[in-house]
TrEMBL record:
InterPro entries: Cro/C1-type_HTH, DUF5753, Lambda_DNA-bd_dom_sf. Gene3D superfamilies: lambda repressor-like DNA-binding domains. The keyword DNA-binding applies. It comes from the Bacteria. The keyword Lipid biosynthesis does not apply. Pfam families: DUF5753. One of its GO terms (molecular function) is DNA binding. This is Putative DNA-binding protein. Residues 93-271 form the DUF5753 domain. Keywords: DNA-binding. The lineage of its organism: Bacteria, Bacillati, Actinomycetota, Actinomycetes, Kitasatosporales.
Length: 283
């Protein structure tokens, strides 16, 4: 049997609390499986939390506190972590920021918006104003900074392999000015030309297709099972049940089949950028 890897609690906040969780669980003489019994989470999920690879959802923190009799320790720490990150990322998205840093491959479908790591500041601000119209300028600046920090996903040569399907309406229904939209689409083209991600456009007249109900990400890892993430305006959900993830993976394959090929998709983005730049888009 391979030696168990020690956890460096100084590496990150999740690693610190993961190490504490393992210590308290083992001190109580409980296995991973015993600890998650009665919750909606699996032993592998808890193991990843102990190793600092996932953040602990507050529902699981409450379950662990009750099971291990830790007097609300993990619920309080979980709340502290969420408060610390709230200025930059939505609470429900904190898990995804951690996971995408470990992902080997990311496949994304977005029916309404350009993916966050590809957004430039004018686009980011428009999205924030639409969903959080009363946000302070300080909070908006922090969110813009946090989103631009994630640009490495598509721009860093060491980032995960990414495949993105976008609906054509994203190109045809701008949420910012024409000059800004031209710059935004030119940025997408520049990143794509460095072969950092593969784009496909789903035409507006493609008819019925999978994933007509919202944004979806599929992530695979070298050292953990794949997951699926779906997001609404104010919430997000991680799905890691193998059979259900498999269904979503198959559906994403059908979505890619319905979309235009990558080269044709890039040409469509290029034409849209030129039209915005010349003031002729929609004419």
């Amino acid at each position: 049997m391979a030696a168990r890897k020690d956890i460096d609690g100084s590496a990150s906040v999740p690693a610190f609390y993961g190490k504490e969780l393992r210590w308290k669980r083992e001190a109580a003489g409980r296995t991973l499986q015993e600890t998650v019994e009665g919750s909606y989470f699996g032993a592998s999920y808890l193991s990843e939390i102990e190793r600092g690879q996932r953040r602990m959802p507050i529902e699981l923190a409450r379950h662990v506190d009750h099971f291990l009799k830790t007097d609300g320790f993990f619920e309080r720490r979980c709340a502290d972590v969420h408060k610390a990150r709230r200025s930059k990322h939505a609470e429900y998205f904190a898990h995804i920021v951690d996971l995408e840093a470990r992902a080997k491959e990311i496949e994304e479908w977005n029916p309404t918006l350009i993916p966050g790591p590809l957004q430039l500041e004018p686009y980011i601000r428009a999205v924030i104003h639409a969903s959080l119209p009363h946000d302070s300028e300080e909070s908006i600046k922090a969110k813009v900074e946090a989103r631009r920090e994630r640009a490495w996903l598509f721009e860093d040569a060491k980032g995960p392999e990414c495949w993105i399907v976008l609906h054509e309406s994203i190109l045809r229904q701008p949420i910012i000015g024409e000059d800004e939209m031209a710059e935004q689409l030119a940025h997408i083209l520049a990143v794509a030309e460095r072969r950092r991600f593969i784009p496909q456009i789903l035409p507006w007249n493609a008819g019925a297709h999978p994933f007509m109900m919202g944004t979806t990400w599929l992530m695979t890892f070298t050292d953990a099972p794949p997951i699926m993430y779906t997001e609404g305006m104010y919430s997000g959900q991680i799905i890691d049940e193998p059979e259900l993830v498999g269904q979503y993976t198959s559906a994403y394959g059908r979505l890619k089949a319905a979309a235009m090929p990558p080269k044709e998709s890039l040409r469509m983005i290029e034409r849209a950028a030129e039209e915005y730049g010349s003031g002729k888009c929609g004419r």
